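Sat 14:20. Reprocessing the chain from the morning session after the first attempt stalled halfway. Input below, unchanged.
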Amino acid sequence: MFSPFLRKPFQKALAAGLIPDSVKTMAGTWGTVSDQGDLTYLNMCHLYLDGTDPDALTHGEIEGRKQAMHAVNALKVFMPGCEDAKLRNFGMTLGIRDTRKIDAAYNMTDADVRGEARFEDSIGIFPEFIDGYGYLILPTTGRYFHVPYRAMLPKGVTNLIVTGRTIGGDKVSHAAVRNMMCCAVAGQGAGVAAAVATKSGRGFHDIDMRAVQTELLRQGARLC
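Finished this time. Tokens:
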């Protein structure tokens, strides 16, 4: 199976002194090649910072752009076909993987995302795609887990539903649910739940799950 993952050009550039030791973790994927010969994206640079701190985010924006230029220089020298490459654009902002998460009515676990967990309050499914904290499992196995509604309900707070990468869970489960596709699954479930709660006059913790699941199925979602 073809993989767009790149590491060797940056290892060679590091050994040659072309890029500094501070970017020795540089590696990642590239997107499709356009008709004009452009790589549609390069996901190569990694930063560790506090995503809740504006000063840290500013530093990250500056450092990330420096790393991007190092990546381009390495590719021009050590990646065949990129000899005349030019940077067309930077990402508009940093892509933050992890900041705060809620303590939910149910917090997802490592075992859930790696063990095909099944839940009666499923609002959708997501494949066994785990990327982060030292894990990389690509969605090629056909295995999948349920995303539970309760993972979006913060403990001790009423009339609030929280979705996306902040849903309740441990680090390994976060490495799965933070993926954009899973955020879309959770977001659709949260939106339907909000509509059902509004129409029924019931709170998120007292909602009729069958009504939520019926509407999700009508919209074409897969729940099991």
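The first strand starts at residue 5 and ends at 6.
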